[in-house]
Structures are given as C-alpha cells and as structure tokens.
Amino acid sequence: MSTQANKALTWEFMERAFNQGDLSVIDEQHTVDAIDHQEPLGTDFVIHLKQVVTGMRTAFPDLHFEIHHMVAEGDIVAFHSTMTGTHTGMLHIPNVPPIPPTGKPISVVHMHFVSYFNGKGHDLWHVWDTPTLMRQLGVTPRPQARPA
User: What is the pTM of this model?
Assistant: First the structure.
C-alpha cells in the first residue's frame, strides 16, 4: 500500500478506536500476529489493544487524541499526538496502583510508530509522557523549580 493509504488507515484507526470507542476497527486493521513492542512477547495484540482502549475510555470518557504531525516512509507511519480527557473513571496503568477518579483534566503527549503489512497494522512502538500524566492527576508532585 502507499504511504498515503497507510496514513489514512492510521488517522481512521485513532479516530474510531480511541476517539469514538469503536473496537471493531482493531480487528479490521491489524494482523492476527501483530506485535506491541511495549508488551511481553506472546501478548495477544488485538485483545490487549481492546483492553487498552476500553480502559482509557473508562478512565477518560471524553478521551480524544489530536494528531499534530504524521509522516510515513515505506510501510511505517510515525505520528505525534496529544491525548486529552477528564479523569472520571478508575485508571489502570501497568506497574502503578489503580488511580481512582480525580475529576482532573489531562493533556499528555504521545509518539507512535506503526508498521503495516498488506494494508494492516503489524508492529507498534509507542511512548507517552506518563510522568506528566501522573503530575496532572496529582499522583506525583510537580518538580520544584531550581533556584537561579
């Protein structure tokens, strides 16, 4: 597929899955052997991603990803986005105790790289600014300003 087609799939996926909560797009747009490189080998990507979307939309019912920049080369699409929402549900993040609703708004930067194989997502590499998220929710303190 062309880089433009892969970019269009990526935009559609983020809109339908994260912004609208449409889990069917995960099955439609990913290979059965897709890999999330943040997760242990053997993790079922489709099941895991459905859990992530459901969990994030439970914690932040007004969840929205705004894509700022997107580039593609070959079969890889990279994009920079900001996740926003209001924390009104229980938040579960691996290796962190569950975070009860705080009612606080969040705005968190993300970077994604997605590789496509035959028009379907196959590999995902993803980083997000979890320290900022934790500070915005009041879970960790804001860093102290350094004296001049």
Answer: 0.90
Phi then psi for 75, rounded to 5 degrees? -95, 10
Residue 96's pLDDT band, with cuts at 50, 70 and 90, is confident
Task: Give the C-alpha separation, 42 to 56, whole Å.
Answer: 22
- Residue 84 DSSP class: E
How many Cβ atoms are within 10 Å of 41's Cβ, its own excluded?
6
- Residue 115: CB atoms within 10 Å: 17
Token pair, residue 102, equals 């705080």
The number of CA neighbours under 13 Å toward the Cβ of 28 is 11
Q: Let me know if 60 is exposed, middle or buried by CB neighbors in 10 A (0-12, 13-18, 19+).
A: buried
Which residue from 35, 119, 125 is spatially nearest to 78, judged by alpha carbons? Answer: 125
Averaging pLDDT over each range in 37-51, 59-73, 134-148, which range is the top one? Answer: 59-73
What does the block give as tokens for 83? 């996740």
